Amino acid sequence: MVDLLKEKSVVTPYAEEPPVSPLLNEENQQMNCSPEVMRCSLNVIPQTKDLLNKSRLPLGILIHPFKDLESLSVIQGTKIVRCDSCKSYINPFITFLDNTRWRCSICFRVNDLPQEFLFDPITKTYGDPSRRPEVRFGTVEYTATADYMARPPQPAMYLFLLDVSHNAIQTGYLQSFCDILLESLNGLPGDARTKIGFLTYDSRIHFYDLSDRHNGTFRIMIAPDLDNKPEDFLPMPDGLMVTLCECRSTIETFLNELPKIYQDNHETDSALGSALQIAGKLLDQTGGRITVIQTRIPNINPGALQELVGSGGQTAKEPTNIGPTSDFYKKLSLDYASLQIACDLFLLNSHHIDLATLSCISKYSGGEVKYYAGFHSVQRPHEVERFENDLRRYLQRKIGFEAVMRLRSPPAMAIHTFHGSGFVRSVDLLVLPNINPDAAFGMQVAVEDSLAHYTSVTFQAALLYTSSKSERRIRVHTLSLPVSANLTEICSNADQEAIVSLVAKMATDRSTTSSIQEARDAMTNVACDILKACLSHNLSNRAFSLLVPYSLRLIPLYMLSMIKSTAFRAGGAPRLDDRAYYLDLCKTLPTQYLMQILYPDLYPIHTIEDKSQIIQDGEDELHIPQRVHLSYQNIDSHGAYILDTSEYIYVYIGKAISDHFVQNVFNLGTFSALPLDSYSLPELENPLSMKIHNFLSYLIQSRPHGIALHIMREDSSHRHLFTRHLVDDKSESTMSYVEFLRYIREQIVK
């Protein structure tokens, strides 16, 4: 137990692994899928609904189903063994009654075991069925038969929609996009059938015939009249989506020429809605992926949105409605989903773009949203680097087409809410026209009947998809957790990060259906309710103390940091687009990256040579500084600090930093010689510089998305970008961490 009112530091100096249930034996823990793939908010499941309610803990599953894995058992050319009743896949937690029968771990149905399952594909011998990879690993992938196909696998289809309005050209993004795509063509997932196409738009839609019938050149066609139906726009569809390997030289010529074609464009309008409608017609027979790069709010119907003049999307008061202002993009997204089309958005805007509305085109089609506020190739080079790194990863990462995901649970339990991008077809089935390795989902779970006759429960997620190589595949993740009637065991084995991630998703829904204030109140109530439940079953709790299990010690801190985050903080200070973007991240980010945003890591780097954890990284040593609480009490003007917020890394240099540090890290004489802001760190041949560089590289490489590095002096005008993350401290509208703890204590003892 931890007394939060006495314990000054509840953040561990170094990162911890996600918790596993100590009630499981070591063999079962190893048979479970990785917690980075699937984890539960509770590692011990309450035996009854009343017990779950008494704990006040939210129950849900968080899943990262298509995550890049270092190793994956792929099972080919064999019968896929499933339960006849619940249709779950055979897994490590079933029971073999003999070599001919097995009992399902989810519904307990006894099933016949096919004779061929006795064959071990590794040793090529018949014998013990428990040697099969399906019953040894918590994550496996099957190559599916024709039974799992609604139609033959379609080719990978990639359609790019590019904003070429005057504003877009001024940002300089088009050159970056063309350069990155040119260098990524070889890595674009697919096979010999892969097709690619482009539409550009301002006030008109521009089509490009990239077929090989024009001797290596391309043709531009323009649709000036946007009042027609989308099908009337298509001049010659067979030349608009072309086979990549057959038309490679024409595509390369096009990408080299495209920035020049529009370099003097003065059209300021944006007909995004029409472009999206046309894109849907181009892919309606095959499905595929649409990638949109947009720099301004669309202002030509269909899909025109209201511009906010002069405010940059900021409001004096907290907005009462942060949801979509139009249903055009939601309806189009649902149409896309029915056609197996996903749409991804890259938003590079300097002014309000109504992200809350535009993001609907991705939300319901299984797409994602990337956001680069104030993007400009000259004025904001760090955003350019983040965009280019994200785009490079985006173009070359794995992709699955025509996917569906189902989560199975015991009959006494029920899935009742999905969180993430996709179309919910039924209570436990999510339709995903595309699936990517960076997408995550949450599912809330209810205990409906008593689990008294269960010693453990099994959850299983199955992702059926078509690979970029036109193979139908099924990736299966299985998680088994013990059941208990003991409230202490349940609370002591909670996963606090998973709880916070689940609450963030629920709060996002609350903020859009009700208000941000209600979402904040709900977070405060979660902290109070959980700690009150701990108090009620902990007779040793005394006055002026706040005892909680170690596994829940961070709940108040994380709830407070969420209340102060860009997504939920009070007032109109966050721009509407910023708020909408971070609300979207709460729903879609894998837990480890969401936690980095909600409570960033703060590292003193001026002590990296003295106070750090040393990890052997090949032949090199990696020095990891100790993390500290996000409080100004931990900031010394003699120090230097790294703040890792997942998407941005800030290096903050105190004004009294030693000349020795400045010389060894920046190759400059004194603090005053440092630029107020810079975006790269020189690599110098000295131990201190190398340690800091190695640590920065470690942070950057530990996540799939791009990162912007911003180095600032203490007296920089951008200092607030760093200090606003010091969420342990009191702000104008919210309590400090210590005050929040006292408030919780007061609410509990009322």
UniProtKB/TrEMBL annotation:
Residue span, Gelsolin-like domain: 625-696
Protein name in UniProt: Uncharacterized protein
BP terms from Gene Ontology: COPII-coated vesicle cargo loading; intracellular protein transport
Domain Sec23/Sec24 helical: from-to ranges: 495-595
Organism listed in the record: Rotaria sordida
Keywords: Cytoplasm, Cytoplasmic vesicle, Endoplasmic reticulum, ER-Golgi transport, Golgi apparatus, Membrane, Protein transport, Transport
Any GO MF annotation of the entry: zinc ion binding
Cellular component annotations (GO), alphabetically ordered: COPII vesicle coat; endoplasmic reticulum exit site; endoplasmic reticulum membrane; Golgi membrane
Topology relative to the membrane: Peripheral membrane protein
Localisation per UniProt entry: Cytoplasmic vesicle, COPII-coated vesicle membrane; Endoplasmic reticulum membrane; Golgi apparatus membrane
Main location (coarse class): membrane
